[in-house]
Each structure stands twice: as C-alpha cells, then as structure tokens.
Amino acid sequence: MKKLDFRSDTVTLPTDKMFEKMVQAKLGDDVYGDDITTNELEALAADLLGKEAGLFVPTGTMGNLLAVMTHTTPGQEVILEESSHIYLYEVAGIARVANVQAKPIKGIEGIMNPSDIKNAIRKENIHFPETGLICLENTHNMAGGMAIPLTNMKEIYTLAKENNIPVHLDGARIFNAANYLNVEVKEIAQYVNSVMFCFSKGLGAPIGSMLVSTKDFINRARKFRKMLGGGMRQVGVIAAAASMALEEMTTRLEEDYQNAKLLAEKLNDIPNILVDVNKVHSNMINVDFSNTIFTTAQLIQLFQNKGLLANPRNDYVIRFVTHKDVSRQDVLDAVDIIKEIIS
C-alpha cells in the first residue's frame, strides 16, 4: 500500500542533486568561520532577502529564538499574533530562554490590525514592561498557510519605526508567500529587520534554517547560537543541501500551490466537508469535518488504515500539506480515500 503523506512539508526527502552536493561540499570548522560551503550559503541567503548577513541554524525554532534574544533585553515585551507559531508551538522559549513577555494580539487569518498593534505598544509607565519587538509570520501556519499582504506588513513596519521597535518575521515558508504574492522574497523582507526561513519544509532540504539581518545583528546572534548549543563544526555537509534547495526548489513551489488548490476544490465537492478554496494561498489547507459523524481522531485513524496521513488541527479540522513528494495523482488518490470513508 502506497503511503500518501500530507502531514507536513517537513517529511520531504532530499533530491539526488542535494546528495551529490553534500558529498562534494568543501568543509571546515564553522565555529571558526572556516566552512566555505556554509559561508557561501549564508551570503547567498542574505543577498536573496536583501539583508547584509546570514546565520545558518539547525532549526526554525532556534532561528526565531535567536532573533528574539538579539532584538530584545530581558524583561521586555514582544507583540505577536495570538495563533502565531512562536507563541503556540515553540515551547515558551521566548519566556524561558529570552526572558521576555509575550503580548498576543488577535488577528484575522493571521493578520494583525496595525491599530491593535499601536494600542498594544507600551506607554512610558513605571509599572509596564517596554515593548521590545513585533513578530510577524508569513505565510501563517494556523491560518492555513495564508499569505500576509505586503500593504499590511508595510503599515506595521512604518508604525514600528516610528516607535523605534524592531520587527522580526517568522518566514519559515516565505518562499511560498512570495510565490502567492508574485514577488521576490526580498520584497517581503524589506518590511522587517530580521527574517528566519526554513530549508527543511517546502524547499526539501533535510536540515536547517537561516536567520538574516544586519552584520551587527548576525554577529550578536552568532554568539547566542553558541550559547544554545547551535555552533556546528563541518556543517557544510548539510549547508550544501540547503544551497541546492535555493537553486532548484524555489521555482517549483507553484506546483505545490496548484496541488493544494486541487485538493481543496475536490474535497469541497464532497457533501458535509467544508473547505474555503479562496483561503488556499500556498501548500496548506484546513479541512472542516464538523458536519460529518466523525471526529478528527477517528478520521486520522481511518485515513491511516488506507495509507493516507494528515494532522488534526482540533476535534473537527484536519490540515493537509502538499510538497515535492506529493504528486497530482496522489492528491486525487487522497480525495478518493476521503470520499470513500465519508460516504
């Protein structure tokens, strides 16, 4: 039985070209700055996003935490959207490690209203923490991979500059956002001071994320990376795969988007299944099964019995993610499985 894995784009396997590049990588000790492959990757990533420097890190969670640690001082407050990945899914690292307090704001489909942010910025008061950072997320995971409009990001960035507050972007899937918005990634990155993006999701590399910003910021973040145990040695082995991901994978993300739209459209035709096709912006869809007789826990097990894997959002919503290892035929096969079970 073939496995149809829609759980996440993190399940992707490296391409043959990635393996070839890993074998051929020029290596050195990256803590000493001697790993040529990693140095080249960091420079390439920074250039693509219009920033001065980059820092290769093991995970996106570490990249986001490093950004918060570098932008803020202990005791400050960070404004972020209440369903953001940093707030919900990064084990309270900004509180436990960075020693800052979260100020969550309710957004609409992951989009924060600039006026709400303005109201959340702390005024001078002996009782209040200082607002040290604003965090955005694009695409937005909990919003089903929706892209945040550049007009919204620009307005927030302008507000932040007026108040001398830096802005960090959790851009784990920023290349998916750029594909939907039909812009270069640097056009998104221009409205933030720092960006983290992942190589191990839609870009298909096995390991790694990148943090980009100014040279001074990255120098300070590099020391925090060492503190967190993220200083790696001959890391060019995996940096090589990440470099190949930037070369060969960014231009194929439209295929994942089209497959996600196809899945949404086909599922929307099945009675008692709800999918808002207009909210499909990237490679992710949220499917509402609340009008069926099943809970998501039951459905996940029934799907798994047929070789279909997906992840529950809650008791009635299941997330499906398309990626390079999911074909158009896989999408159609998944629809057939779901239709058979629901019917």
TrEMBL record:
Species for this entry: Anaerovirgula multivorans
Cofactors that this protein relies on: pyridoxal 5'-phosphate
Upper classification of the organism: Bacteria, Bacillati, Bacillota, Clostridia, Peptostreptococcales
Record NCBIfam families: GntG_guanitoxin, PRK10534.1
The protein's name: L-threonine aldolase
Pfam families referenced in this protein's UniProt entry, alphabetically: Beta_elim_lyase
GO annotation (BP), single: glycine biosynthetic process
Lyase in keyword set: yes
Keywords: Lyase, Pyridoxal phosphate
